[in-house]
Amino acid sequence: MAVYTEVSDEDLRGFLDMYDLGEVLSFKGIAEGVENSNYFLQTARDRFILTLYEKRVREADLPFFLGLMEHLAERGLECPLPVRNRTGQALGRLAGRPAVIVTFLEGLAVKRPGAGHCRAVGAELARLHEAGRDFPGRRPNALSLGSWAGLFASADGQADRVAPGLAARTQAELDELAAIWPRGLPEGVIHADLFTDNVFFIGDRLSGVIDFYFACTDALAYDLAICLNAWCFEPDGSFNATKGRAMIAGYQSVRPLEPEEVAALPTLARGAALRFMLTRLVDWLNVPPGALVRPKDPLEYDRKLGFHRKVAGATEYGWEPVRETATSTASA
Ligand SMILES: Nc1ncnc2c1ncn2[C@@H]1O[C@H](COP(=O)(O)OP(=O)(O)OP(=O)(O)O)[C@@H](O)[C@H]1O
Ligand SMILES: N[C@@H](CCO)C(=O)O
C-alpha cells in the first residue's frame, strides 16, 4: 500500500475547506502504487482521488502534469481532471506535501492482459501521442539515459546483494546503451509509465488512463518500448509476440512508426527495461521505515533485459509493416 504520508482528520478538513466538494463520506488510503500517497475520497458531491506527491515528483513539474491532464481530457482522452479549489488553484499543500484532488475514473486494471487489451493500449498510446502534439509544455525526461548511471550509483554498490552478478551486468548495459542510444527520433509528450495498473478497462473497453507523473518530452517510440515491456511478457518471463504484434498494430492503426523508430525499437526496449530495473533496485534497497508500500521486483526487469539483448530486430516484438488499405492502393 503506498501511503507514505498520513493525513490527519484535522488537516483534511482544513484542506477541503478550500473546495466546494460537499461533506466527506469516506476517506481511505489506497492499497496500490509505489510512488505517491493516494487516498480515495468520497464526498456528498462525487468520488475523487487525493494525491500527495512524494520523493520522485518535483513540485516545479506539477503544473506540467496537471496542464497535460487538462489538455488531453479536452482532446477526448479519458484521464483524471485536476479539481480546482475556490480560488481556482488545483495545486495545494497538505501534511507538508504538495497535494492535488483529481476526478475518479471508473474501470479496473487488468492483472493478466490478453492480446485485445494490448491492442487497445497500443492504440490509446498513439492517441495520447497525437493529442499531445500541440501541448505547449516541455519537460525533459528526468529518468532517461543521462540519469541511469547516477541511479545505479545511488544503489551504492549493493546490487550484488539482490542478485550475484547484477552489478557487472548492469554496468556493461549502461556502457553499451550510452554508446548506441538512438538520437533524433520523433519526439513529443510521452506517458512514460503506462503499466497495467495505470490503464482501466470496463469489460473489454479501455475506459481510462491515470498516473501522468512521469510524463515528459521524449522519443515517442520509447513509450511504446515501455509498454511492450510492461504488457507483453508472460509470468514465466517469456515474451509473447502475439501480444507484441497486437500492441504495435494497435499503435500503428493510429500513428504508423517511422523506419528509424522501427530500427531503434530493440535498443529502446533495452533502455526501458534498464530504467525500471534501476528505479526498482533503488526502491528495493531503500524502503522508508514505516511506509505502507510493497517494493517491486528489480530482477523481473533484469530478466527482460536479458531477452532484449538477444533481439535482432523489431519483427521479434511482432512489428509488421502497415498494410496498404484498398483505398490508398487504388489512389496510389
Ligand atoms: N483518477 C483515478 N481514478 C480511480 N482510481 C485511481 C485514480 N488515480 C489513482 N487511482 C487508484 O490509485 C492507485 C494508485 O495510483 P497511481 O498509480 O497514480 O499511484 P502511484 O503511486 O503513482 O503508482 P505507480 O506505482 O503506478 O507509479 C491506482 O492503481 C488506482 O487504483
Ligand atoms: N511502473 C513502475 C512503478 C512506478 O514508477 C514499475 O513497475 O516499476
**Helix content bin:** 40-55%
At the fold tier of CATH, the topology name of the largest domain is Aminoglycoside 3'-phosphotransferase, Chain: A, domain 2
Q: Shape from CA axes?
A: globular
Report the strand count.
Answer: 9
Distance between the termini: 56 Å
Q: What is the C-alpha radius of gyration, as a whole number of Å?
A: 20 Å
Q: What's the tally of helices?
A: 11
Enzyme class: transferase
Catalytic activity: L-homoserine + ATP = O-phospho-L-homoserine + ADP + H(+)
Domain Aminoglycoside phosphotransferase: 27-257
Keywords: Amino-acid biosynthesis, ATP-binding, Kinase, Nucleotide-binding, Threonine biosynthesis, Transferase
Describe the structure.
This protein is an alpha+beta fold. It folds into 2 domains: 9-103, 2-Layer Sandwich (Phosphorylase Kinase, domain 1); 115-331, Aminoglycoside 3'-phosphotransferase, Chain: A, domain 2, CATH 3.90.1200. It is 41% helix and 14% strand. The chain is built from 11 helices and 9 strands. The chain has helices at 9-16, 62-74, 115-131, 145-154, 159-162, 166-180, 220-231, 241-252, 259-285, 298-309, 326-331; strands spanning 24-29, 37-43, 47-52, 91-94, 97-103, 187-190, 199-202, 205-209, 216-219. The strands form 3 sheets. It has a 5-stranded antiparallel beta sheet, with helices on one face. A hairpin with a 2-residue loop joins strand 7 and strand 8. The protein is globular, with a radius of gyration of 20 Å. The model is unreliable at 328-332 (pLDDT under 50). Residues 34-35, 193, 195, 276, 279-280, 296 line the site of L-homoserine.
